């Protein structure tokens, strides 16, 4: 045996097949789009329009003081919707704090999905019900969870895929890199979706990464990287569905970078004019995910006024129901503060609970 | 500790009155950058944006991107590279965007920042300032309202400083940056917009680190507090007059080093003490302070030292936080339990 025969000497995998396409993959407006199932396109369209309306309504609710904060995904609806729709009911979604839309598209009640941002509790839904992890605010920390869950499912013999979402900024955190490495070493059924929306609050891409693309980061960990136009809902859906399918079939993890743009400020509390040009925003407005799909649908004779109106009506119904429900004050019980800290409250917590109860009683009587 | 007195800033300050704590912190960073070329500010969104709380507003424009740098989004990386910069002789000031987002940097802090002087027998001190907006009361969603001072204070090798007034925000931050030891500088975010007549161009006073200050003298009992809870304690002391109590208030300003003399002297004068902070009580700063008061002042005490702290729960969502934060009533209630003689 020489060093040439030892495992350390030779590359363990061929890097070339893992590399992403040189340009973001697109479907809408290309000849390949002709193959797309009209029913799928119509479904995606309905979700996109509803999603946009949801973003608008939640933003309005924030202005009215009904939400503490809302990180809108306006302009990113194609990624949000495609992520939810690429999964089967038994799969799991791991959203970041910007991904309320994906959570709702997966079936979580639209008001329960907003609990965190309304401020009446931290997570408003039972994660098991729709297999959606809590919205994660500490960036990238949800990614190792997705890997662990996917591994557990595999070890249990269950056919489950986990899809985890993260932003361009989040890819700089250590947890992102650790999650990718574990996923590739263990070959677990997980898909990482990086929504590259151009900014981490105010920080632009050139201060965040020197990699050719975020998708290239996959190669260093030994998994394929895919680069896709994040505003082309058909393309994102196809790429994610393929990655999910590959994961399900034992092919291991994939990293998907969807190139998109955050049309609104970081949140309602942010002033984006401090750090970006209107011309850039305008360029992306001309590449709007809904308009791209409408063009395709119209070109194929799949979108007439009737379809358009009924989709718009449906979105309006959703928005007015949301508005109405959010204008009802949340039911709050201060004693909930002590309810779920431990399975059994400690002696000290019981004392503190009694203290608060007495204070509230005194408040009521005065 | 070594606390060099920084020279006055090069640029004339705008005559703005009254100033907020945020402006005083901004001015302190400005003056530190102007006074010492080895000072470098690092963090997320601190350049063009000027920080999410605008504490670094205008610094990148004036001193350039290399002195006030937008880093990649990674707290362990921010603090880890600050360690390397300090090893080479620079004086980094890092900003963590929010309390709970400092946690990825905990290993760098505990394993390296806190220990380097000791590991190298003094050959390699690390003059790093770690600024962390902390605490609640601003209606933030989860992970935006933590009070993590006990973790830091429990780590030998770190100074832990927290201003409660506009003046101290300036003076203590200048001292922290000038310190040759690492300082965790906790900024009470709900006081960022508090105002005072302090003006940036009046002789910039650098406050030595490690000295508590008596904010109010009193004869009945002493409230001991720091950071975000100071205004609440002062309000409680005012309200206590109605009950016939004359309360003193001590502002610690520095948790490490802890100024036992000032605290002990104040408590000896009243014989009764309540420690107030908004972080959880169990295993918190109040326990340490109460123990020290008992050790130092036992024969002067008329009652056990009491604590008023946040509950031992994860920080509540915005709509419930008012039930968690110690308020005037909870403080007065504790004062009432200090075993006063009948009549
Ligand atoms: C560990 C951690 N550090 C800092 C923050 C504060 N923060 C919240 S969002 C954000 C920017 C995130 O950018 P990106 O990952 O690109 O997601 P986007 O907001 O664009 O969806 C920052 C710095 C955080 N939530 N978590
Ligand atoms: Mg982003």
From TrEMBL, chain A:
<dbReference type="InterPro" id="IPR017596">
    <property type="entry name" value="PdhA/BkdA"/>
</dbReference>
<keyword id="KW-0670">Pyruvate</keyword>
<keyword id="KW-0786">Thiamine pyrophosphate</keyword>
<dbReference type="GO" id="GO:0009083">
    <property type="term" value="P:branched-chain amino acid catabolic process"/>
</dbReference>
<keyword id="KW-0560">Oxidoreductase</keyword>
<protein>
    <submittedName>
        <fullName>Pyruvate dehydrogenase E1 component alpha subunit</fullName>
    </submittedName>
</protein>
<dbReference type="InterPro" id="IPR029061">
    <property type="entry name" value="THDP-binding"/>
</dbReference>
<dbReference type="InterPro" id="IPR050771">
    <property type="entry name" value="Alpha-ketoacid_DH_E1_comp"/>
</dbReference>
<dbReference type="GO" id="GO:0000287">
    <property type="term" value="F:magnesium ion binding"/>
</dbReference>
<dbReference type="Pfam" id="PF00676">
    <property type="entry name" value="E1_dh"/>
</dbReference>
<dbReference type="GO" id="GO:0016624">
    <property type="term" value="F:oxidoreductase activity, acting on the aldehyde or oxo group of donors, disulfide as acceptor"/>
</dbReference>
<feature type="domain" description="Dehydrogenase E1 component">
    <location>
        <begin position="55"/>
        <end position="316"/>
    </location>
</feature>
<dbReference type="InterPro" id="IPR001017">
    <property type="entry name" value="DH_E1"/>
</dbReference>
UniProtKB/TrEMBL annotation, chain B:
<dbReference type="Pfam" id="PF02779">
    <property type="entry name" value="Transket_pyr"/>
</dbReference>
<dbReference type="InterPro" id="IPR005475">
    <property type="entry name" value="Transketolase-like_Pyr-bd"/>
</dbReference>
<keyword id="KW-0560">Oxidoreductase</keyword>
<dbReference type="InterPro" id="IPR033248">
    <property type="entry name" value="Transketolase_C"/>
</dbReference>
<dbReference type="InterPro" id="IPR029061">
    <property type="entry name" value="THDP-binding"/>
</dbReference>
<dbReference type="GO" id="GO:0007584">
    <property type="term" value="P:response to nutrient"/>
</dbReference>
<feature type="domain" description="Transketolase-like pyrimidine-binding">
    <location>
        <begin position="19"/>
        <end position="194"/>
    </location>
</feature>
<dbReference type="GO" id="GO:0009083">
    <property type="term" value="P:branched-chain amino acid catabolic process"/>
</dbReference>
<dbReference type="InterPro" id="IPR009014">
    <property type="entry name" value="Transketo_C/PFOR_II"/>
</dbReference>
<dbReference type="GO" id="GO:0003863">
    <property type="term" value="F:branched-chain 2-oxo acid dehydrogenase activity"/>
</dbReference>
<keyword id="KW-0670">Pyruvate</keyword>
<dbReference type="GO" id="GO:0000287">
    <property type="term" value="F:magnesium ion binding"/>
</dbReference>
<protein>
    <recommendedName>
        <fullName>3-methyl-2-oxobutanoate dehydrogenase (2-methylpropanoyl-transferring)</fullName>
        <ecNumber>1.2.4.4</ecNumber>
    </recommendedName>
</protein>
<dbReference type="Pfam" id="PF02780">
    <property type="entry name" value="Transketolase_C"/>
</dbReference>
